[in-house]
Structure formats: structure tokens, C-alpha cells
Amino acid sequence: MNLIALIRQHLPALVGRLPVRYQQGKMPYVFFFVVVVIAVLLTYALISPYPYAVVSFSSLAFCLALLLVLVNQGFSLNWAVHLGTGLGALILFYAVWAAGGVHSPRLAWLLILPLTPFYVIGRRAGTFWLLAVMALQTAMLVANHLGWVQPFETGMAHVLSSLVTYSLVTCVLIVVPLMYDHLYRQALEESRNYQRELELRREELEHTALMREHFIATVSHELRTPMNAILGFNALLLSRVQDKPEALNVLNHTRQSADHLMTVINDILDYSQLQTGELVIQPETFELRLVAEHAFELFKPRVESLALDYRLVLDPTLPVWVHTDRHRLMQVLVNLLGNALKFTHQGSVVLRVDKLDAGVTFSVQDTGIGIAKERQDQIFKRFTQAENDTQTLYGGNGLGLAISQKVAQLLGGEIGFESEPGQGSRFWLRLPLTAAAAPLKSTEKQHHLLQSADRAWTFLVADDHPVNRLLLKQVLQNAWPHSVVLEAVDGQKTLDVLRAQTVDMVFMDMVMPVMDGIDATRLIRQEPLARISQVPVLGLTANVNPLDLERFMQAGLSGVMLKPFEPAQLFERIEQLLVP
């Protein structure tokens, strides 16, 4: 064992001095084994008493040395092993034949011939040479039985060579497996190191993905917070200028642009959700024509300075009201129109909405640059654009169509295109839309919802953004004129207010300094006073991370709504919680 440990200790240094071809994998062991065999053959050439020994053993040693040189020059290792084993078998067969056949100790060398093919090439090669050796031994037995080979004659001249033969064969049978056992352990250790590297890499990728999700959630939260104020105050102004057409028109355009910006913000989330398969839809009933018109109108300022025929064609038989995800439909239409205008500098861009038996088809036809045939099968893949220089020339990131295809599938439809290079493209979206019942008007809905409009509720708004608190206060006092709206800038202040006076309902933001909404809600539910622990707590947050929302709900919320919120939906939720 000390010898083996010594060999293992100095083996790397020895390997480093070998020719390059013999420094990888099994090659060092092949080299050392062949060198040992050559040394043994030369030793036999000196000590063997037989007259044929010098020529036969020296010739085999020379052939093995030549094979080493040829392998170093690029000759196939497998063929070199077969040739060397074959030559060894012939020389040994001749030596055994001349030394008494099956009675000769030289026959023991045939035992180790299959070892090299087995360890270097594989089991099949080892089995082949094992069968070959057994055939040689059988032939030698027959030759002895028929008297073709005379029995081995004992004598003092054969003592040394016989001792060397048995000793070397015994050593080879032990050392060769030990050498390859070391090779196996070395390969196993390399495999384990590689596995550890892969595990570290996997952990790094998981951390990167987690940081990406955190970044997207943070960006979404920071964008949704001001959008909550913009959309909220826009809704308040709309309710107060119903008798002023010009102001109403301006605010409606503002609302459309804000809705489009919310679609862009949602696209930021869609990139992450598209990878994890978590894109969701939120169906609602809306006027189909208005959505098509809004999408069309968004690009009118852009085309005013262009010589383009920009048109919207609506089928008169279209259903007035439909039920699907309005924002997602708007998202796809805006993407298709934006792409058409981006690649069309002259001619026309036409948005058509047609009623078909199976639903509604939206199509965007342009006379732009078109899409090359060889790139058409890649157009809906993420980060893929029709040409390699498309992003440089026209901008974009290649995500829009991939998201649009997924949205179309979630809405129960399909998306496709036809295109000819240099002649333009036609992208179409087919959705299974049918006529839906018209919803209650906003005034009727508000009248229906506000059963407690004359009640003097005491509300507590917990939010660290003063604009958000002001917006919610205005919305609540417009709906409940006799109500009192208290304010708190963090979770700790919220607890202080609740302990000081009775509150009918708390509106809790999730992300706040000092103490966030999750911890504050949990502590509210743990309060010993029933008037505090049982107060309805409605979460209002711009954080759309599913895990955070789940933690928020588990803290003890009575419900949760995302910012920006619809006032009508907020009123409905409030009365569900307060009116028995």
C-alpha cells in the first residue's frame, strides 16, 4: 500500500513530463503499462535459456515501442492495442509451443493478454481476446495430447525464468486493476467536482432569477404607485365634468393614454410571467368598438406627419358588448399596430375588425417591408426579430409578438400572419367573442352599490404616500359624505390610531417604512380588544408579486385589491365587508 501511495503521489509529476497525447484520460496508464511490458520483454531476452528468446522478445519490444510512437503521432489507440495484443499472442504462442506447451510456465502470460483491451478499449474487446486466449490454450492442449509438442523438461536453467514469470504475472494481475481503480477514482472525483460546480452554478442562476423577480416586482410597484394617483384623480375629474364636453374629451384622452401606459407596465411583468407560465387574464364586459377605437387613436399623433393611409374599418354587425380581458386585448392590438407602423414608411396601415361565425377577427394590414421567408417560422419566439439588424434599424426587443401569442391562447383564440418580403404583412387575431349583456351604467351601479351612503363610517387609510392617501380620502368622502377618514403613514401609526379610537374599516398598504402592512395586519389580529382584532382590513397595494400577496392575505386581511383600483369595485368590496 505504501508503494501504491508513493506512485499516486508522484504520478501527476510523471504524467506532466509525458508527450501531450499521453497526458489525458487513460493514456498515462497505457504508456506506463507498455513501457513495463517492454522492460519485461528485454529482461526475458537476457535471462531466458531458450535460443529463440533474444530475437522473439526483442522484436516484440521493438514493435510495442513503435506502436507507442505511432499513437503519439495520431494513430488510433484501439487499433494499436489490438495490434500489440495480437503480436503478443503470436510471440507467446510460439514461446509456449517451443517450451513444452501446456506444461510451460510461459503459458501464464496468456492470462494477462485480455487485460489491456478490456481496460483500455472496453468489455467487448476484452471478451474477444479472452476467447482468443482460450482458443490458443485449447489448441496447445490438443497439440500436447497428439504429441506435436514435447513435455517441458525441468532443469536448473529454467528456475530463474519460471520464478520471474510467475512473479511478474502475479504482480500484473494485481497492479493493472489497481492502476485502473486509481483512474476510476480520479474520474469519479472529477465528476463530483464538476457536479459541485454545476450545483453552484444552479444556485447562482436561482439567485439571479430571484433577484430578477424582485427587481420586476419593485419596478412594477414603483410604477403602479403614481399610476394609482393619475387614474384615480382622472376618475374623480371625469365624474365632475359630465356637463363640460371639451374637458370631458380631454380627460377621456388622458384616461386612454393612462390605460395604455398601464398596458406597458403590465408588459414588464409579462416578461417574467411568460417564462414561468403565470400569465393570467381578468375578463370583464366592455364595448368592443371603443377598445378598437382607443387602440387606433393612440397612434394617430404619430402618423399625422407621415404620408400614410391610416384607417380603422369596423364591421357593422360586430357585437356591441363582449366579455373578455379588455387590457389584454388592447395590449395585442397596440402591439400589432405599433409593429405595422414601425415597418411601414409609405402606403397604408389598416386595422379591420370583422364579425365571423366563430367570433371576431382583428387584422392589421400594412404595406411595409414584409418578413423574409426563412425568418417567418421564428417570428413568435422571444427575443427574435425578422432580421439581425432589425433592432438597430427599427428598435424593439422581440418580446411583443411572443407575449401576444401567449395572450391570444389565454383568451381562447389564435394569432397568425401572412407576409411577402417587400410587399407588407397582415397579422390577425381571432377570438371566440359573442354578444354579452350590457352592464349597468356607472351611475346606476354606484346607486345600486351605495346602500350605506348616508352612514357616518370612520375609515383609516394606512399608506406612506400622501398622494395615495389624498386620493383614497377623496374617493371615500365622495361616496360617503358623512364619513371620517383618518390617516397613518406606517404600520406602527396604524396600531396607535386603532388603540386610540374606534375605526370601522382599515385600508392597508403593503410596503411602508417602520412597519409594513403585513406585520401591522398580523398584530391587529393578535390584539386582545375585539374592536381592534375584528376590524375589517382591506389591503390596497401596488405589489403584484404572488408570494407577497399570499403572505399579505395570510396575515389576516379581509380582502385585497391592486392599485390602481376601480372606485366601483372598491365601493362594492367595502359594502360587502361593512353592510350585513
Task: Please describe what this structure looks like.
- This protein is α/β, with parallel strands linked by helices and 580 residues long.
- It folds into 3 domains: 2-153, no CATH class; 281-431, Histidine kinase-like ATPase, C-terminal domain (Heat Shock Protein 90); 442-578, Rossmann fold, CATH 3.40.50.
- It contains 20 helices and 12 strands.
- The strands form 3 sheets. It has a 5-stranded mixed beta sheet with strand order 2-4-5-7-6, covered by helices on one side. The protein has a 5-stranded parallel beta sheet with strand order 9-8-10-11-12, sandwiched between helices.
- Strand 11, helix 19 (546-554) and strand 12 form a beta-alpha-beta unit.
- Helix 17 runs parallel beside helix 19.
- It is elongated, with a radius of gyration of 43 Å.
- The model is unreliable at 383-397 and 442-448 (pLDDT under 50).
Question: How helical, in percent, are the residues?
Answer: 55-70%
Structural class of the secondary elements?
A: alpha/beta
Main sheet attributes: strand count, strand direction, barrel closure = 5 strands, mixed
- Give me the Rg, rounded: 43 Å
Query: How far apart are the first and last residues' alpha carbons, in Å?
Result: 86 Å
- Uncertain residue segments: 383-397, 442-448
Strand order of the largest sheet: 2-4-5-7-6
Number of extended strands: 12
Counting structural domains, the number is: 3
Kindly report the average pLDDT value: 80
Number of helices: 20
